[in-house]
Design goal:
heterodimer, A: mainly alpha, Rna Polymerase Sigma Factor, Chain: A, Arc Repressor Mutant, subunit A, 2 domains, B: mainly alpha, 8 helices, 66% helix, 3% strand, flat
Amino acid sequence: MHTELTDTEIIRRILQGDQAIFATLVQRYQQYVFTLVLRFTDSREDAEEISQDVFVKAYRSLADFRGDSKFSTWLYTVVRTSCITFLRKKKLDTTSIDNERTFLQLENKESGFNANSIEQKSRHAMVNEAIRLLSPDDSQLITLFYKGEQSLEEIGRIMRLEPNTVKVRLHRARNRLKEQLEKHFSHEVRELKD
Amino acid sequence: MNTQQPMEDRLWNYIDGGCSAAEKSAIESLITSNREWQEKYRELLNIHRLLNESELEAPSMRFTKNVMEEISRYHIAPAARSYINKNVIRGIGAFFLTMIAGLLTFVISQLKWSPGNSSSQSIKLPSIDIGLSQLNKIDYPKTFNSAWVIGFMLILVVLSWMLLDMYIQQKKRKTS
């Protein structure tokens, strides 16, 4: 379904009134958006809700996309603002939650790595689990670089950082990811080395 | 750990293909000759491969359908650049700049400059008394009747009327 069309062509057609073709953009970027949103929140339900909101916002403000950057770069700015708004709202809703509950959530998160099911987890799941343990900034940086196909310059532009700073942060993020993999998946990491 | 950091950074740079030809050959020779570098390179390369091979998370099957149902209720908003008038932005900027300039002029005109004690050998900067401690002693009716304040207020009123006029004109043009 319109897979041969470029993002710019699709956007031009949407702006001319062809609403249905927006589905092509959604299918093209839904995994990218959903993964980035999952770097902000642990809940898949929340992530799906935010991702949906991201596409609705992107559709509504599509006329503002000037085409001087990649569509995925522009979409990331929508992802970031939507996630920050959602988290701010959620934080306000849950101010009554005490530290004990937060501690329990963290404990559950840690215990999720017990030996019960790790053996069966694929490498893909393992990497995603380790990325989820990083800070949102680190995990987004890794996702944008490896999965968003964004260059250091493009990441710098959307994060308002110098490319060299992005490079240093990416090195640090990958080192932290390595530490998480060694901490929680030492067995699998050892197998990979052999 | 600290001694390892430059090695890791250099290796990541090499893996990403971001180093110069000279640096590349230097790292290649280190990898072949130094066991520590070799091990670290393999370790980092594994992480790099894992990240490259990792897949993106997928939302539910109905995701696209849900989005399309949702957007069917909306229209694309006009581009911000089409309805933001640069003259209005410039007008607002001028308004605030005049306010700041007026305020600064007023504050400077109220300053009492007194030279430091010239009898002593040490150099002293002039002391400035802006009279904050004497705020309660200010004669407010007299102050607000000064030519400075009245002039400043007049400028503000004229600018406000200009802004309001620009806004109404723009609205009229849109409706016609």
